[in-house]
C-alpha cells in the first residue's frame, strides 16, 4: 500500500457552473458518478480547502483537491542502479517493468518516485516505455534541466538502443524514415504508428548479431517519437521479437487487443551522450544490456 495522493487543480471554464460530482465524473472517468459521490460524502474532495457538499456548484478560480486514499499498486522492479552522478546530472538504469511516470495505478512504483528517493530534486528529462530498460538522464537543478532540455530540442543528445528484432534482414545497416503519428485504435481511440500523415522520424539500425529467425541490432534515433523503434523496425518488416502490439508494416496487429504498456518485446537504452550542463564537456554513459540482448 502506498500513502495515497492529493490531486489538485484550479477550476476553469470547463467546470464553472457545474456540480462537483458531475464535473469529476466527466473529467476523471476512472470512477462512476456514484463513486465520486461516495468520495465527496467521505470528505475526500475539497474546494478551497473545505470539504465539498454533494450539491456544491463549482466556480472558475476555485481550487479542487481529491485526497485519494492509499491503494495497492501493481508490482514493479524497484532496483535503480546509478550509472553516473556528477553535480546537476544523475543517470540511472531503469529496469524493464518499471514505469517512468505515475499513471495507470502506479505512483510509488515509478522511476520518478524512486529517483527522488535518491535525490528529492532529481527529475527525469525523458521517458522510456515501461518494458524498455536502460539509461535515463535526470537533472537536479533548474539550470541543468534547461540546458539538457535545450539539447533534446536541438537533437544533440545521442541515444543508442539495443533491440532483438525478428527475421533475417538482407543488409547490415538500414536507415528508416517512416513518418509516425496517431492512427485509429479500437481500445484507445488513437495510437501512434506508421502513417504517411505522421511527423518526420528517423532511425538507423545496424545488425550486430544474427540468430535463428532473429537478430540483435543497435538503433540510433535522431527523433524521439512515441514507440519509434518498435514502429520503425516493424515498418521495414522486422517487428521486435515478442512485441504484442506492432506487426509488419508498423501498424497495430489486426483485431489485436494489446496496449502499448504490454510486455513481450526486448528493447534497451544502451547509451546516452550529452554535453555536461556545467562544463560543456561531452559525456557518454553506457548501460549494460540484459542477458537476452548481450552478444553471445
Could you characterize the architecture of this molecule?
Helix content is 15%, strand content 33%. It has three domains: 5-68, Roll (Structural Genomics Hypothetical 15.5 Kd Protein In mrcA-pckA Intergenic Region, Chain A); 74-154, Pseudouridine synthase (2-Layer Sandwich), CATH 3.30.2350; 156-265, Pseudouridine synthase (2-Layer Sandwich), CATH 3.30.2350. The longest helix is centred in the middle third of the chain and has 12 residues, at 142-153. Strand 7 (123-124) and strand 8 form a beta hairpin. It is of the alpha+beta class and 296 residues long.
Please report the number of helical segments: 5
**Helix content range:** 10-25%
Which assembly state applies to the chains in this document?
A: single chain
Low-confidence parts lasting 5 or more residues at pLDDT below 50?
A: none
Q: What separation lies between the terminal Cα atoms? A: 41 Å
Amino acid at each position: 500500500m502506498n500513502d495515497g495522493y492529493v490531486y489538485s487543480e484550479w477550476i476553469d471554464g470547463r467546470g464553472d457552473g457545474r456540480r462537483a460530482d458531475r464535473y469529476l465524473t466527466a473529467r476523471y472517468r476512472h470512477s462512476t458518478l456514484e463513486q465520486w459521490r461516495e468520495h465527496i460524502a467521505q470528505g475526500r474532495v475539497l474546494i478551497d480547502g473545505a470539504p465539498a457538499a454533494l450539491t456544491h456548484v463549482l466556480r472558475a478560480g476555485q481550487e479542487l483537491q481529491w485526497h485519494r486514499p492509499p491503494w495497492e499498486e501493481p508490482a514493479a522492479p524497484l532496483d535503480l542502479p546509478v550509472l553516473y552522478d556528477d553535480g546537476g546530472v544523475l543517470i540511472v538504469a531503469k529496469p524493464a517493468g518499471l514505469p517512468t511516470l505515475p499513471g495507470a495505478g502506479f505512483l510509488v512504483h515509478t522511476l520518478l518516485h524512486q529517483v527522488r528517493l535518491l535525490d528529492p530534486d532529481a527529475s527525469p528529462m525523458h521517458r522510456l516505455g515501461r518494458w524498455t530498460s536502460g539509461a535515463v538522464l535526470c537533472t537536479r537543478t533548474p539550470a541543468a534541466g534547461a540546458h539538457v532540455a535545450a539539447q533534446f530540442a536541438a537533437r544533440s543528445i545521442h541515444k543508442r538502443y539495443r533491440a532483438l528484432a525478428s527475421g533475417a534482414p538482407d543488409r547490415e545497416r538500414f536507415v528508416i524514415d517512416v513518418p509516425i503519428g496517431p492512427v485509429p485504435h479500437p481500445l484507445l481511440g488513437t495510437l501512434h504508428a506508421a502513417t504517411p500523415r505522421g511527423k518526420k522520424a528517423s532511425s538507423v539500425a545496424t545488425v550486430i548479431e544474427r540468430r535463428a529467425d532473429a537478430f540483435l541490432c543497435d538503433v540510433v534515433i535522431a527523433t524521439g517519437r512515441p514507440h519509434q523503434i518498435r514502429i520503425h523496425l516493424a515498418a521495414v518488416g522486422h517487428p521486435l521479437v515478442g512485441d504484442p502490439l506492432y506487426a509488419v508494416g508498423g501498424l497495430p496487429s489486426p483485431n489485436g487487443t494489446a496496449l502499448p504498456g504490454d510486455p513481450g518485446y526486448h528493447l534497451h537504452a544502451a547509451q546516452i551522450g550529452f554535453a555536461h550542463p556545467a562544463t560543456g564537456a561531452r559525456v557518454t554513459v553506457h548501460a549494460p544490456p540484459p542477458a537476452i540482448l548481450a552478444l553471445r
